Amino acid sequence: MAIERTFSIIKPDATRRNITGKVLTYIEAAGLRVVAQKRLQLTKEQAEGFYAVHKDRPFFNDLVGFMISGPVVVQVLEGENAVAKYREVMGATNPANAAEGTIRKDLAESIEANSVHGSDAPETAKEEIAYFFKDDEIVG
Ligand code: GDP
Ligand code: MG
C-alpha cells in the first residue's frame, strides 16, 4: 500500500471546546502523521468555496455559518491508505450513526457540528490540500 495524503479540518465546535489535542490523539493512534497544520479563521468566501460541492443542499448556509463561527485547524495527514483510514477514524457524518471509538461518536455535537472534515477520495484530497497549503508548507 502506497503512502498517501489526505486533508483534515478540526472544526469550530472542537476548537471552541479546546479539544484539538484530543482529536489529534485519534489521528496519531491510527498511524496517520500530521505533515502540515495551521490554525485559521475562515472567511465566508473561503468556506463557501471549500464546500461549493454542497451549494445546492438545504444545509449549505448553516454549514458555512458554522464553519466561520470560530477558528479551525487545517491539516495534511500522511500514511498508508490515508484517505480511507481517516474517514474510518472520523466515523459517519451524523454522530448518532458513527461507530464506537470514532472521533464523531466520541466527540461530535451534532450532524453539523461534527468536529472534523476529511477528504472523501484521493483526487479530492489533492484539491483540498492545494486550497489551503503551498507545497513548501508540507514537511513529510
Ligand atoms: P462528511 O463528508 O462526512 O463531512 O459529510 P458531507 O460531505 O455530506 O457534508 C459536509 C458537512 O456538512 C458535514 O460534515 C456536516 O458538517 C454538514 N452536514 C451534512 N449533512 C448535514 C445536514 O443534514 N444538516 C446540517 N445542518 N449539516 C449537515
Ligand atoms: Mg464530505
UniProtKB/TrEMBL annotation:
PROSITE patterns on file: NDPK, NDPK_LIKE
UniProt xrefs under SMART domains: NDK (SM00562)
Cofactor: Mg(2+)
EC numbers: 2.7.4.6
Quaternary organization: Homotetramer.
List of catalytic residues: H117 (pros-phosphohistidine intermediate)
Pfam families: NDK (PF00334)
Record-listed ATP binding positions: K11, F59, R87, T93, R104, N114
The keyword ATP-binding is assigned to this record: yes
Organism: Methylopila henanensis
Main location per the UniProt record: cytoplasm
Name of this protein: Nucleoside diphosphate kinase
Primary role: Major role in the synthesis of nucleoside triphosphates other than ATP. The ATP gamma phosphate is transferred to the NDP beta phosphate via a ping-pong mechanism, using a phosphorylated active-site intermediate.
Stretches assigned to the Nucleoside diphosphate kinase-like domain: 3-140
Compartment(s): Cytoplasm
GO molecular function: nucleoside diphosphate kinase activity
Catalytic activity: a ribonucleoside 5'-diphosphate + ATP = a ribonucleoside 5'-triphosphate + ADP; a 2'-deoxyribonucleoside 5'-diphosphate + ATP = a 2'-deoxyribonucleoside 5'-triphosphate + ADP
PANTHER family: NUCLEOSIDE DIPHOSPHATE KINASE, NUCLEOSIDE DIPHOSPHATE KINASE DDB_G0292928-RELATED
Keywords: ATP-binding, Cytoplasm, Kinase, Magnesium, Metal-binding, Nucleotide metabolism, Nucleotide-binding, Phosphoprotein, Transferase
Family stated for the protein in its record: Belongs to the NDK family.
